[in-house]
Amino acid sequence: MSPDPVTNGHGGGAARADAGARARNLRMFGKLAVIACVMFGFGFLLVPLYEKICEVTGINSLTKTDRGAAEFARNTQVDRSRKVVVEFDANSRGAWRFKPEINALEVHPGELVTVVYDLVNTRAVATAGQAIPSYAPQQSAAYFRKLECFCFQQQQLGGGETRRFPVVFVLDPKLPKDVRTITLSYTFFEVAGRPAAAMPGAGVEHPVGTRTAQRGQGEPDGQGG
Q1: Which of 36, 109, 140, 214 could pair covalently with 171 via S-S, beta carbons 3.0-4.6 A apart?
Q2: Rounded distance, CA 153 to CA 147, Å?
């Protein structure tokens, strides 16, 4: 008995369809494998890529220790013929209360000055954070030399702990003459993950010869309170 040509034709078509489906599945599997490998490799590249972007854009320089600032301050003459108003601002992102102890101060370029920021961890558990500074006008950042700053490293506070953090700085006398006011603003971000090593916070020490700003002393009119 000869095979039914109609039935045989249907069987061959089904076999070809199955083979085509298997081929498409294999191609899709290959594409997904390539995508997974690319994403896996990209994950390893994220950290060096981020560091390179920070290096190019100058983001890292905002929190990088200025190793030459202390020597610069020792060898710089104070320009007492000029005063610059430095305003201090604070913002927080996370479980913090954060503020400067003084809102503004008149500073002579070349003068070594200390201001203090108060930080409170409002949580009941230890929490780590990182302060990021910004400057206005932006060009003033290059002339704002910091000898000491809590922004140089992450900080950890215990549950409910309060800390006083000094910022010791000097303004470069080469600051353009048209810059009469500088705003130094810090934003304190909560850092997720393992808490960072804390900077010593028992008391605030100041370099010899620095002027420590206190509320009501050296503030421009209308800036106190």
Answers
A1: 109
A2: 13
Q: Please give the Cα distance from 1 to 5 (Å, whole number).
A: 12
Are 211 and 111 in contact, with CB atoms under 8 Å apart?
yes
Q: Residue 214 and residue 102: Cα distance in Å, rounded?
A: 7
pTM of the predicted model, to two decimals? 0.63
Region of residue 62 (left: phi > 0; alpha: psi -120 to 50; beta: else): alpha
More confident residue, 35 or 199: 35
Residue 94: name the closest of 148, 150, 155, 153 by CA.
155
pLDDT value for 16: 72
The DSSP-derived string for 104-116 is EEEE-TT-EEEEE
Q: Is the N-terminal amide bond of 207 cis, ω within 30° of 0?
A: no
